[in-house]
Amino acid sequence: MNDKSVRLGIIGFGAQGGVYAGFVAEGKVKGMSLGAICDIDPAKKRLAEEQHPGVAFYDDYIAMLDSGDVDAVVTTVPHYLHPEMTIAAIGKGIHTLTEKPAGVYTKQVEQMNEFAAAHPETTFAIMFNQRTNPVYTDLKDLIDSGELGRLRHTSWIITTWWRPQAYYDQSEWRATWGGEGGGVLVNQAPHQLDLWQWLAGTPQKVFAKLAFGFQRDIATEDEVNALVDFGDGATGHFLTSTSDIAGTDRLEMLFDAGKIVVDASTKVTITRLTQDERSISDSMSVADVGRLFKGEMNTADLFSTEVKEYESVWGAQHVDVLTNFAAHINDGTPLIADGAEGINGVRLASGMQLSAWTGREIDLVDFPAEEYLRELNQRIEAEGKYPTRS
């Protein structure tokens, strides 16, 4: 057992970075201590000195990486910066936990993944904290067991991301193509995009309709309707927006031998068929159908239903990922989410955007990365505020 404390450097001392620094400083993350804080805003230096006296502060993240004060970093910075900062850190032998999303476009994420793969001695993880949520870890185990059979279709309505106009107006970079790289798909919904394919499998194709600046004065998408093809006949639907003040969070997954419904990420209803649905269908006589339509059939002979209720503890999931990150560095404990897996959500979000821009179905297996980047750069140029990407 290695009792070494991993000294964490926080790159970006904003809302999320401040929370992580607090968790570590308060001793909530086993095997980890607060090594240094970095931010380019001078006001953040004063804040860091007040909240974490004695902890080294840097206004240049490269200087922090070279300082000897940190063994690992977390990148709580704008999305475009995640890959370049991760590459810089790993190149210096500094373990890296990148924030979600892994990046904005697949080309930069692929470069990051390839670089990390060439340095396997340095830990590369991603903050998919929802993968520690018991609601979803229990479902992952159930689905992987094969008890419910093959997936038929799945739908996730996740519209609990209501954001008033003032939210977007508080920072010039928000919901811009050059500053943020997208809207609800890259800011609010990456966790669901990751969980969806973690549970259901990686989609092969996507066709989407997006609304850009539909109900908000922004350039990027604020409503998304997407259809995905998982292959072998399995399909899915994903709906998200930032203008539904009442909001819905409902995941449905239909399998050959059962169904899963998750409401508000806290209530799970699992239906288990007594045999697979086709067998039930093939075994029914005309008389059985009559009794079924009249409500005279005992459905207990067909299926059983289990309802589970979960409680969510705010912050616990982030602590779990940070603790796991430290444990992997110290003891080789398997990662909750390997950093390389972040590309799946980026590819899916980019595929949805590209489908909306071009009006065609997008192949996610052989993703047209260069075409996406050209389309993205056209929108960055039109904004006239930020440099184009390569």
Automatic annotation (TrEMBL):
Keywords: NAD
SUPFAM superfamilies linked: Glyceraldehyde-3-phosphate dehydrogenase-like, C-terminal domain, NAD(P)-binding Rossmann-fold domains
Domain Gfo/Idh/MocA-like oxidoreductase N-terminal per the UniProt entry, residue ranges: 7-120
Domain of life, source organism: Bacteria
Pfam families reported for this sequence: GFO_IDH_MocA, GFO_IDH_MocA_C3
An MF annotation (GO) of this entry: nucleotide binding
Residues annotated as signal peptide: none
Domain named GFO/IDH/MocA-like oxidoreductase: residues: 137-260
InterPro entries: Gfo/Idh/MocA-like_OxRdtase_N, Gfo/Idh/MocA_Oxidoreductase, GFO_IDH_MocA-like_dom, NAD(P)-bd_dom_sf
Protein name: Dehydrogenase
